[in-house]
Amino acid sequence: MAMTPKKNKITNTPTRRHLKIPLTNLYMHGDYTGTLYFGDSRTPAQVILDTGSSTLVIDGRVYNPEIDAGAGITNLAQRVEYGAGGWTGAVVKTRMSLGCEQTGLSLNDVHAAVTLEAGQRFFGKADGILGLAYRGLNQAFTLPEPSWPAFDGNQLELAPKCELPPCFSQLEESGVVANRFAFYTQRSRIDYTGGAPEQNARNYGCCVIGGGEEQTDFFEGEFKTVRVVHDLFYNTNLKSIRVAGQLPIAVAPPVADSKVASNSIVDSGTNNLVVPESLLKRLLEQFRALNPAYSALIGQSMAHEHVSLTDADLLSWPDIVLRMEGEGEDVELRIKAATYWQTCANPEQGAVFCL
């Protein structure tokens, strides 16, 4: 998946670079994380790479700005709520680095929120989140005094708001990297084949900051371009969805007064293909129409029962076909059964249906 975060056309110049960041799904049970380094001491943090948010946040138990000589304390604070919870933190300015010290990239005065309360419940085994979306999602509150090491959260209710540049925007605007990034991943769940997931190559991937299309060892064939119709999220228009061999199910655009920019988004911070319940029911009916056994196995997975599908079994399953608005003409994207089913997706090595 290659993405250009803004609508203007970007050309690479000799001063711009791209950098590969190794990814793994081991820390967040399927969501991908990579290592960033903070401060003059290059404190490592394993962060979720999330196209569904814009804020850079670090667990305060991992990075302490008080012992970072180059950190700048501010009077800004942030509170962000996601679909699965949220956090509150103080905003500092610090050096953020990618890759090894000799050949990587560094940028000073990056805005990073540092959580004041334990983030373990929300971040899981990760240390934070790198939001890769747009400015409109990266709001902060201006307080009358420095926000670190502590502030009264009740102040946020009446505090004036301001907008902070996301970390990726700061990287791009500094001229360090081109205005694009790409993901190469193989799984949306941990692969427990053989019982040693940390040794399984399918649990690793790569994020290319500042590039993607030049990485021909990661893909075959030509790219398909899906139009991003709004820059709040990576908003896209889904025209229809179907199980291959069945008729398309039209997907309605958002209603005019909903203030929703489109009917779908690209979100690397979730590892399911998420659709409304009414649409899911129609897709399940299409699976049942092709083969009642398909419906039975999907039902088992949804009931959290063990499903013993293997990669070989999935060769008989149909694709799920998305028709998306493209640039000029619609684009069809096919989701293989080996993607919407994840085999060996738990320690019992059962399969999980990811729709």
How would you sum up this structure, described in words?
- The chain is mostly beta strands.
- The protein is 11% helix and 32% strand.
- It has five helices and 21 strands.
- It has helices at residues 120-123, 167-173, 277-290, 292-302, 337-340, and strands at 2-3, 19-28, 31-38, 43-50, 56-58, 72-82, 85-98, 105-115, 128-131, 139-142, 161-163, 181-184, 204-209, 235-236, 238-243, 249-250, 264-265, 320-324, 331-335, 341-342, 352-353.
- The strands form four sheets. It has a six-stranded mixed β-barrel with strand order 3-4-9-5-8-7. Strands 16-15-18-19 form a four-stranded antiparallel beta sheet. Strands 14-17 form a two-stranded antiparallel ribbon.
- Strand 7 and strand 8 form a beta hairpin.
- Helix 3 crosses helix 4 (292-302).
- The radius of gyration is 21 Å and the shape is globular.
- The two termini are 19 Å apart.
